[in-house]
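Please check what follows.
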Amino acid sequence: MDTLPRYAVPTPRTGTAALGARRGSGSDTAPETPGGLLARKLGNFVDLSDQEREVLDDLVRQHRQYGPREHLSLENGHSRSVSLILEGSACRYKILPDGRRQILTLFIPGDLCGRCLPDLDLGDESIVTLTAATVAVIPRQAFAPIIESYPRVARALAWNAMVEEGVHREWIVNIGQRTGYERIAHLFCELFHRLAAVGLTQGLRCELPLTQGELADALGLSAVHINRTVQQLRSDGLICLRGRELTILDFAALQSAAMFDGQYLHLSQAARRIEAGTMRTYPDL
């Protein structure tokens, strides 16, 4: 069985903070720059011209390496920049005084962590890496001239914010109404669609950026419940999970079990690639 390649290892270019990002089997071209990763994500919402893609590429001038569980921002902290995940994963969370944590948002490569509003400098959220990560730091002020001069980019950013809100609503429904089995199946479907949108899937495989403990914090379940339910999904022939490598064995059945309707993600291009590649069993299992 082939193993899923890890996210691209960042390789700084001389005099820049650019790096190449590998794409999965849904890719249509060779390596891209970090800003190209953002353009690829936004291009799912709006057709961007070469000039608009270059403008987004120019936004990414600095990046930094983080280890797991390092904070990108803290609630009530001051920040004049937005983080763009280039490699790895992070999450937005709230923590109660007694130490219990709720993961509110999962960030993967291509995701902007925070709003692009130039005048916003007081954070109302805590964001921490889940894995080792490469993160670009973009000053909020850098978005102002782009939003004014490039209306399609502004529209794509607005679409991106709308999709984030849709994901938040779906997570509320997940925790409030779905069973544990349905919650995990739904998150796996959502995550696969999002990773496919930025070329980080290989066939029906992807890298799961969450541990079982983190899944518990995201889904409002105990770690024991997560473990038992993942085993049930395996037994039902829907998934194979080996370490962090997730293979979806029957995408249609997994979506049915989760009552998953991906319209809220507005990732039409990614959805078409998934539909074209969906199969009952993975060929080399």
Summary: Confidence is low (pLDDT under 50) at residues 1-31, 278-285.
